[in-house]
């Protein structure tokens, strides 16, 4: 007779007490799932999880550089406001930030009291923000990926704000509008951030300006570049680089190892002296066309 295989049933596995996970394990889990996922869900699971989310500043050292979700966000401003809250949680330990900011917003990252602007639309994150003042500080900022799209800010306002981050080493600046002819963004950034080791400037493209390639004029770079003793990598996009500007860059960036320029440059103007300076740059890419001979 076949065996029925009977016996005592296996006991049900014990339910895990997720709230009792050690703080260092939760820290590692939160870092892996992403900060936005923490803010939009994980921190509301229980008091222990929320305690780690709110009181572990090291968790919030790098904000917005990885994929930043848009769950619950109807406009970009709400998404950036979540990043401001993350900066607040870093308690001054934020070292890297990526976002779309006005000059006044950038300055607010350096202040203890950040007053929400009237045009700011907020999402309720369960902390009762309303329109109260919030402490935002990033004195340790070393990496900044900034999109700036308000042409009412002057270069002086923008670079004046950048100047408030003395430890800044890596800057990526995306501009979505054209400057006045006598404005010198690159030279002003060099003066404001003399300790930069890497700089990427993306000037306005035809797409940003909503015009055709035929009607698009690239941002001119004429020169007047100040000394950048620590700069090792420079990338310039959608610009019209002059002969003098290239000379100034090579003369004033003694440690430059990589230079990439996308846009226009008239190689017919290059003389032997400039070619010798170019040879000192390990990785050099210049445009193959000029603004006049395409």
TrEMBL record:
Coiled coil regions, renumbered to chain: none
**F-box domain: residues covered:** 15-63
Q: Which SUPFAM superfamilies match?
A: F-box domain, RNI-like
Any Pfam family: F-box-like
InterPro entries xrefs: F-box-like_dom_sf, F-box_dom, LRR_dom_sf
Protein name per Swiss-Prot or TrEMBL: F-box domain-containing protein
């Amino acid at each position: 007779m076949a065996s029925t295989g009977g016996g005592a049933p296996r006991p049900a596995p014990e339910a895990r007490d997720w709230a009792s996970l050690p703080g260092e394990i939760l820290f590692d889990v939160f870092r892996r799932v992403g900060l936005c996922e923490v803010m939009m869900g994980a921190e509301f699971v229980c008091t222990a999880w929320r305690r780690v989310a709110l009181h572990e500043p090291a968790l919030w050292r790098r904000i917005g550089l990885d994929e930043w979700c848009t769950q619950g966000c109807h406009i970009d401003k709400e998404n950036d406001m979540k990043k401001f809250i993350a900066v607040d949680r870093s308690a001054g330990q934020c070292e890297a930030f990526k976002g779309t900011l006005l000059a006044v917003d950038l300055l607010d990252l350096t202040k203890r009291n950040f007053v929400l602007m009237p045009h700011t639309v907020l999402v309720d994150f369960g902390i009762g923000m309303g329109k109260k003042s919030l402490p935002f500080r990033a004195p340790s900022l070393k990496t900044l990926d900034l999109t700036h799209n308000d042409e009412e800010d002057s270069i002086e306002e923008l670079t004046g704000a950048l100047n408030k981050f003395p430890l800044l080493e890596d800057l990526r600046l995306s501009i979505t509008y054209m400057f006045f002819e006598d404005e010198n963004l690159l030279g002003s950034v060099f003066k404001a951030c003399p300790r930069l080791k890497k700089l990427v400037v993306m000037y306005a493209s035809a797409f940003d300006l909503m015009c055709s390639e035929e009607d698009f004029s690239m941002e001119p770079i004429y020169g007047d570049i100040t000394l950048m003793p620590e700069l090792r990598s420079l990338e310039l996009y959608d610009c019209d680089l002059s002969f003098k500007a290239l000379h100034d860059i090579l003369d004033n960036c003694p440690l430059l190892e990589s230079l990439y320029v996308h846009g226009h440059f008239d190689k017919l103007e290059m003389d032997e002296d400039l070619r010798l300076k170019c040879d000192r740059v390990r990785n050099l890419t210049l445009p193959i066309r000029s603004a006049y001979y395409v």
